[in-house]
Design a protein that fits this description.
Strand order of the largest sheet: 1-31-30-29-28-2
Distance between the termini: 42 Å
Largest sheet: 6 strands, mixed
CATH class of the largest domain: Mainly Beta
Helix content: under 10%
Number of strands: 42
Number of helices: 1
Number of domains: 2
CATH topology of the largest domain: Methylamine Dehydrogenase, Chain H
CATH architecture of the largest domain: 7 Propeller
C-alpha cells in the first residue's frame, strides 16, 4: 500500500515553490532512451461476476474518488479506464514533496497531500494542466524519523467524505476536517484533538470511517481508536503490536486492521468502542526485510467480494493469505496460503489488487529508499497473480511477470483489463529512466511502457498509480506529481455486466444437463451440458457470444444472433471432475452490454 513514504525536500531537487504547474526538472542525457515500448491496447473489461461492485460507502466520496486505494474495501481497482498506450502524452507538477495520495472531488479536480521533509501540504490541482488552484499547509513534523523516506504519517492516508471534505490525520495527533471554499480554497471546518488517547511519541498512520460514520484511526504504536464525529468522544483499544498500514471497512460494520502480530476484525460495541471480533496470527520471521517498513505484513487488508479478506504474511518466502471475514465461521478461518516469489528475496510493502477471485501482488525486495534504484542498483523483479480455486477451498498461482516495480501501489482498471505498475531497470548510464508499465491482467504479459521521466525526481518512493476519470494515470514522485495520458482520452467503456440498478436487464445464464433439467450449482454435470440465456428481457437481446473452457483456457466457441441463445457442450468435451466456466457476452438492442458467467463441475 502507499507506505509511509516521505518526499525529498524541494531544495534537494533544486525546486522552487511553483506559482503554476512548473514541470519536474529532468536529468539531461545524450543517450537514446525510448519513450514508448510495446503497442496500444484494446479494452478487455472485467466481468462483474469476477469483480462485483464494491458497495458505495455512505460517509465517503464515491468509489474511485475517495482514497488512495479507490474504495472502502481497499481493492486498488477502478471502474475508470487508464491510458491504452495511444500516442501518450505526459505532464508534471513540481512540488516540495511526493503528492502520493490523490483523490477527486465532484468537479474532477485533484485533491492531494504532498508530503515534504518539513511538513505535508494539502493541494487542489486542475486535472488537465495540474495547475495549482489552492493549498493549505498542514502541521509540521514533530520529529524526524530515522528513515525519512519510510514515514508517511500525518496525511498520507487521508480520505474525502461524502461532502468532498478532506479528513486528515495530522502530525500533531489531531484529525482535521477540511472543506473547500468557492474561491477556490480550503477552510478548516473541524479539528478533533485525539492526542490524549495516544502517547507523545506515537503517530496516527491512517483514518477511515465505518458504515455508521464513526472515524476509526490507527497509530504506529498499535492503538486503534474510534472517534464519534458528532460529539468528539474517543475510545481506544491497545493491540500492543505496531501498525504500519491503513485499514479496510465493510458494510457489515467490520473494520480490518493488520499489525505486526496478527490480522484483526474489529466491530464497535454498544457504546461505540472498538471491540476485537476475531484475531488471526500469521507466519512471521520477525525480520524487516529490505523492501518493508515494519517487521510484519506490509499490506493494508484487502476485502474480496462479500466473503474474504487477504493480506501477505512475513514468512520466507512471503505468502498471500486469504481468510473468511465473517464474525464467526464453521471450520478454519484461513482459506488458503500461497507462496509468492523466491526464498530470501521476497517482500512487499504495497497493497494487493483484489477482485472477488483474484489477487495481484508485487515484489519490493531490495527497496529501502532512492539509492536502492539509482544507476546500477536494482531491486528484485516479480509481479504475480493468485486466484482462489472455483470451489473456494484453496488458491493457486496464475502467472508471474518479471517486471521490476520497486515500490508502487499498482492499480487494475476493470474497464480495460490492464494492471498499471511503475518500473525501473538497472541503468549503467545513470539516466535512471522510470516507466509507467501496463500488464495484461489475464496473462501477465507486458503490453506497453511509457517513459515517465529520468532521474531522482521521478522515483515514486511508495506512492501509488492513481487512475482519473478522464483516463489519465497519475503517479506521485519525489519531485511532485506526473500525469500520463493518451492524446485522445479513451472512450468510457461500460464493463460487461455493468448495467445495474432498477433498469438493469433481467437476464440469467442457466446450465442444464443434456439429459436432465437444471444443474444445481453445488452438484456436477453428467453427460454434457446446455448453457442457455433466459429471463424476462431475453426479447431485447441482439446477440450472444459464448466462451467456454477451463478457467485458464477460455475460447470463443459460438456467436448466436437468434433465440434460444444457447451453447451445447457434449460429454466428450468434458474432463471428469474438472471445473469449467461458461461466459455469455450479451449485446442488447439498445447497445448496452452485459456479461453473465456460470461455473460447473463435470462428473
Amino acid at each position: 500500500m502507499l507506505r509511509r513514504a516521505a518526499a525529498l525536500a524541494g531544495t534537494l531537487l533544486g525546486l522552487a515553490a511553483p506559482a503554476h504547474a512548473d514541470p519536474i526538472p529532468e536529468r539531461p542525457t545524450t543517450n537514446s532512451i525510448p519513450e514508448f515500448v510495446g503497442r496500444s491496447w484494446s479494452p478487455q473489461p472485467i466481468s462483474l461476476l469476477d469483480a462485483p461492485p464494491v458497495p458505495r460507502h455512505p460517509h465517503m466520496a464515491p468509489n474511485d474518488r475517495s482514497n488512495l486505494h479507490d474504495d472502502a474495501f481497499q481493492t486498488d481497482t477502478t471502474n475508470w479506464q487508464g491510458p491504452l498506450g495511444r500516442d501518450m502524452q505526459r505532464a508534471s507538477y513540481a512540488s516540495f514533496g511526493v503528492c502520493g495520495s490523490v483523490t477527486f472531488d465532484a468537479r474532477d479536480r485533484l485533491v492531494t497531500i504532498c508530503v515534504g521533509v518539513a511538513r505535508p501540504t494539502l493541494r487542489l490541482l486542475a486535472p488537465n494542466t495540474l495547475e495549482p488552484l489552492a493549498s493549505m499547509d498542514l502541521p509540521t513534523r514533530q520529529s524526524v524519523p530515522a528513515n525519512i523516506f519510510q514515514d508517511f504519517t500525518g496525511g498520507g492516508y487521508f480520505y474525502l467524505d461524502e461532502r468532498d471534505r478532506a479528513i486528515i490525520p495530522t502530525t500533531t495527533r489531531h484529525i482535521y476536517v477540511v472543506a473547500q471554499t468557492p474561491e477556490p480554497g480550503f477552510r478548516l471546518e473541524r479539528d478533533y484533538d485525539v492526542s490524549g488517547t495516544l502517547a507523545s511519541d506515537d503517530k496516527i498512520i491512517s483514518a477511515l470511517p465505518d458504515w455508521s460514520g464513526r472515524i476509526w484511526y490507527a497509530s504506529i504504536n498499535g492503538r486503534v481508536g474510534v472517534l464519534d464525529p458528532r460529539t468528539g468522544a474517543t475510545r481506544v483499544f491497545d493491540t500492543g503490536e505496531p501498525i504500519g498500514n491503513s485499514h479496510a471497512v465493510d458494510e457489515t460494520g467490520g473494520v480490518y486492521v493488520v499489525t505486526d502480530g496478527a490480522l484483526y476484525r474489529f466491530d464497535a460495541d454498544a457504546a461505540g468502542a472498538p471491540k476485537v471480533t476475531w484475531r488471526q496470527p500469521y507466519p512471521n520471521t520477525g525480520q524487516m526485510k529490505p523492501g518493508q517498513t515494519q517487521r510484519g505484513s506490509g499490506v493494508t487488508p484487502t476485502l474480496m467480494g462479500s466473503e474474504f479478506v487477504a493480506i501477505t504474511d512475513n514468512a520466507d518466502p512471503i505468502n498471500v493469505v486469504v481468510y473468511r471475514r465473517a464474525k464467526s465461521v464453521r471450520g478454519p478461518r484461513q482459506v488458503c496460503s500461497q507462496p509468492v516469489f523466491s526464498e530470501g528475496a521476497s517482500s512487499t510493502d504495497n497493497s494487493l489488487i483484489a477482485t472477488a477471485r483474484s489477487l495481484v501482488v508485487e515484489n519490493n525486495y531490495g527497496y529501502t529508499g532512492p539509492t536502492s534504484t539509482s544507476g546500477t542498483a536494482v531491486t528484485v523483479p516479480g509481479i504475480e497473480r493468485v486466484d482462489l480455486d472455483p470451489d473456494g477451498s484453496g488458491c493457486r498461482k496464475v502467472w508471474t511477470s518479471s517486471e521490476r516495480s520497486p515500490s508502487v501501489v499498482p492499480k487494475l482498471s476493470l474497464e480495460n483489463g490492464l494492471v498499471y505498475v511503475y518500473t525501473k531497470e538497472p541503468d549503467s548510464q545513470n539516466d535512471d529512466p522510470w516507466y509507467l508499465t501496463a500488464l495484461d491482467f489475464h496473462t501477465g504479459r507486458t503490453v506497453w511502457k511509457r517513459l515517465s521521466g529520468r532521474g531522482l525526481g521521478f522515483n515514486n518512493n511508495y506512492a501509488p498509480v492513481t487512475l482519473g476519470p478522464d483516463g489519465t494515470a497519475y503517479v506521485g514522485v519525489l519531485g511532485g506529481l506526473v500525469a500520463l495520458r493518451d492524446r485522445t482520452p479513451p472512450p468510457r467503456v461500460a464493463r460487461p455486466s455493468g448495467v445495474t440498478g432498477p433498469d438493469a436487464p433481467r437476464l440469467l445464464l442457466g446450465i442444464y444437463g443434456l439429459h436432465r433439467r437444471n444443474v444445481p450449482r453445488r452438484t456436477c454435470a453428467p453427460r454434457g451440458v446446455r448453457a442457455l440465456v433466459a429471463g424476462r428481457d431475453k426479447r431485447n437481446v441482439r446477440r450472444v457470444t459464448f466462451l467456454y473452457g477451463p478457467r485458464t483456457g477460455l475460447r470463443r466457441v459460438r456467436r448466436d444472433t437468434r433465440r434460444p441463445f444457447e451453447l451445447r457442450v457434449p460429454d466428450r468435451a468434458l474432463g471428469k471432475r474438472r471445473f469449467y466456466r461458461v461466459i455469455a457476452r450479451i449485446v442488447l438492442r439498445d447497445g448496452r452490454r452485459l456479461t453473465l458467467t456460470r461455473t460447473f463441475r463435470a462428473c
